[in-house]
């Protein structure tokens, strides 16, 4: 099996570098004998997992796409969300998984917590993306052109007296979300309810879903916001890893 481990190390190195490397440089960076790397690269070349650049250096080949496509086809963010809670304890608070659909988010999975909230959450529920915590987590990572196309004209519609009323206010919230890694809905969807959410990334680096937690402000204890922020961020990181995201994204 050492040859398999070394071959995977070669592929992983080239995937991280995102550029062609000579066999000598591959051998140097992996601290492997040049003769061993030569044999490994030739085998990977013949199977299509590597290809030669114009200068003869090694780069990732097209055969890896079949593996990537098979991984994506067999991975469902909703399925991974359900498995996450089957493998551990039920969450203290209700957690939801949302995806973006136009200017709205749709709940695709819900895990009810042990603490009653007094709100009904169900799969298929839709909310304005610019008001909900999960929606803002997803909007924050959209390309500018798509974000601009999705935002309604000012003043932005609101469900309560809270929430951004202009695109400029919303963009400030989205910038904060990108910086801190989570978003907040402070009574923008419902009075008395605050929500926290974090984005979930796939293998391409796109934010494909968001996980959020909803909290009753009237019974929030000391430190609970920070604790639940950690819960959603850790859940998002775990789900991102399971979808193939790179560590910096996960």
- Strands of the widest sheet, in order across it, are 5-4-3-8-7-6
Helix count? 9
Categorize the overall geometry: elongated
**Helical/strand content category:** alpha+beta
Helix content class: 40-55%
What can be said about the biggest beta sheet?
A: 6 strands, antiparallel
Average pLDDT, rounded to a whole number, is: 85
Which residues form runs of ≥5 with pLDDT under 50?
none
Using brief descriptors, characterize the structure shown.
six-stranded antiparallel beta sheet; 9 helices; elongated; two-stranded antiparallel sheet; 250 residues; alpha+beta; single chain
Describe the structure.
The protein is an alpha+beta fold and 250 residues long. The chain has 9 helices and 8 strands. Strand 6 (183-186) and strand 7 form a beta hairpin. The two termini are 29 Å apart.
In short:
It is built from nine helices and eight strands.
């Amino acid at each position: 099996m050492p040859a398999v481990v070394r071959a995977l190390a070669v592929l992983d190195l080239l995937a991280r570098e995102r550029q062609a490397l000579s066999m000598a440089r591959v051998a140097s960076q992996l601290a492997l004998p040049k003769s061993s790397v030569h044999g490994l690269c030739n085998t990977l070349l013949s199977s299509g997992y590597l290809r030669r650049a114009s200068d003869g250096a090694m780069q990732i080949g097209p055969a890896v796409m079949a593996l990537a496509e098979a991984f994506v086809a067999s991975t469902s963010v909703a399925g991974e969300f359900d498995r996450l809670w089957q493998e551990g304890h039920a969450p203290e608070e209700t957690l939801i998984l949302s995806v973006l659909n136009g200017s709205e988010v749709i709940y695709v999975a819900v895990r009810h917590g042990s603490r009653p909230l007094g709100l009904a959450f169900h799969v298929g529920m839709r909310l304005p993306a610019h008001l909900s915590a999960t929606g803002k987590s997803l909007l924050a990572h959209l390309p500018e052109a798509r974000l601009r196309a999705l935002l309604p004209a000012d003043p932005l519609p609101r469900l309560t007296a809270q929430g951004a009323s202009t695109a400029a206010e919303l963009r400030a919230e989205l910038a904060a979300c990108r910086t801190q890694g989570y978003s907040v809905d402070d009574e923008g969807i419902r009075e008395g309810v605050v929500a926290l959410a974090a984005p979930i990334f796939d293998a391409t680096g796109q934010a494909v879903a968001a996980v959020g937690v909803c909290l009753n402000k009237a019974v929030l204890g000391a430190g609970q916001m920070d604790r639940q922020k950690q819960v959603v961020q850790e859940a998002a990181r775990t789900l991102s890893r399971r979808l193939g995201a790179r560590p910096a994204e996960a």
